[in-house]
């Protein structure tokens, strides 16, 4: 849900070495556009730009202090980026993610990343419960989850854990009352209107629909995270774990 007008971006200093930009929207395409615009500002010594749900954190390099940075210029760049993101298709489109908006923004911000296809065996322990809560059959739940092209909004909780927006609104999935102590690596999960893949063994409270052998985070890879903010992701049902293993090395590009 958009929190305000598309141009309602603000910026403020956050501690001695960073600036926080409030995008005024939780639309991931807008957040990605702002992150790219700030990173490209000339003369700004940026160590890192961290997109979140509706903000962008700018961390400065070379000992540059936030007090020495023109915060108004950062805010102006953010507003200009938002003005360039002007349209999106109607809610509920089959792709789930706002395709036209995402395509234009991602092309500018990240060189038009490939859609990452995630081979998934839908045999998770919460599959039946989520189907019942959603008033769907298991087959209908799987079909709806796999029909969408999601967009990575931000990364959090654990390295490589990307929060993917675009879940079908018919899929009802609350977090577990008591989180599991151990969720397996590659678990494909849903909760709170989002979907994600657990990159490593960890505790977790999302509902598990299946699993993939795709390695979402690998410190030996550059970049380590396979899914970064702005990347489109699609889940592809497969019948057995051997198919997952064969497709799991780096994901597949759509044919």
Structure write-up:
With 255 residues, the chain is an alpha+beta fold. It has two domains: 10-84, Gyrase A, domain 2 (2-Layer Sandwich); 109-247, Cyclophilin. It is built from six helices and 13 strands. The chain has helices spanning 28-39, 71-84, 99-110, 127-133, 138-147, 241-247, and strands at residues 10-13, 18-22, 46-51, 55-60, 116-120, 149-155, 162-165, 180-183, 187-191, 194-197, 202-204, 207-211, 232-237. It has a four-stranded antiparallel β-sheet, covered by helices on one side. A four-stranded mixed β-sheet has the order 5-13-6-7. A hairpin with a 3-residue loop joins strand 3 and strand 4 (55-60). Helix 1 (28-39) runs parallel beside helix 3 (99-110). The chain is elongated and about 55 Å long. The two termini are 32 Å apart. One of its GO terms (molecular function) is hydrolase activity. This is KipI family sensor histidine kinase inhibitor. InterPro entries: CT_C_D, Cyclophilin-like_dom_sf, PxpB. Pfam families: CT_C_D. Keywords: ATP-binding, Hydrolase, Nucleotide-binding.
List the helices and strands and how they pair.
Layout: E1 10-13, E2 18-22, H1 28-39, E3 46-51, E4 55-60, H2 71-84, H3 99-110, E5 116-120, H4 127-133, H5 138-147, E6 149-155, E7 162-165, E8 180-183, E9 187-191, E10 194-197, E11 202-204, E12 207-211, E13 232-237, H6 241-247
Parallel strand pairs: 5-13
Antiparallel strand pairs: 1-2, 2-4, 3-4, 6-7, 6-13, 8-11, 9-10, 9-12
Helix pairs in contact: 1-2, 1-3
Keywords: ATP-binding, Hydrolase, Nucleotide-binding
GO molecular function, one term: hydrolase activity
Pfam family, one: CT_C_D
């Amino acid at each position: 849900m958009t929190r305000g007008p598309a141009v309602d971006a603000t910026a403020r200093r956050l501690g001695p070495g960073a600036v926080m930009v409030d995008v005024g929207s939780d639309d991931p395409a807008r957040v990605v556009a702002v992150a790219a615009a700030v990173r490209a500002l000339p003369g700004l010594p940026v160590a890192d730009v961290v997109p979140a749900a509706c903000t962008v954190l700018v961390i400065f390099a070379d000992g540059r202090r936030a007090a020495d940075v023109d915060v108004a210029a950062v805010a102006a760049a953010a507003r200009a980026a938002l003005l360039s993101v002007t349209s999106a298709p109607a809610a509920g489109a089959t792709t789930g993610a706002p395709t036209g908006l995402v395509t234009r923004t991602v092309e500018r911000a990240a060189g038009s990343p490939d859609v990452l296809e995630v081979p998934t065996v839908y045999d998770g322990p919460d599959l039946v419960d989520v189907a019942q809560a959603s008033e769907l059959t298991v087959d209908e739940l799987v079909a709806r989850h796999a029909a969408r092209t999601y967009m990575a909004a931000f990364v959090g909780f654990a390295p490589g854990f990307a929060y993917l927006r675009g879940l079908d609104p018919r899929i009802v999935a609350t977090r577990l009352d008591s989180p599991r102590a151990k969720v397996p690596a590659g678990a494909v999960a849903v909760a709170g209107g989002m979907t994600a893949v657990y990159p490593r063994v960890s505790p977790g409270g999302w509902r598990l629909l299946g699993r993939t052998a795709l390695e979402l985070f690998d410190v030996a890879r550059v970049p380590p995270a396979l899914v970064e903010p702005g990347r489109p992701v699609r889940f592809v049902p497969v019948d057995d774990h051997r198919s997952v293993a064969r497709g799991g090395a780096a994901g597949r590009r759509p044919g």
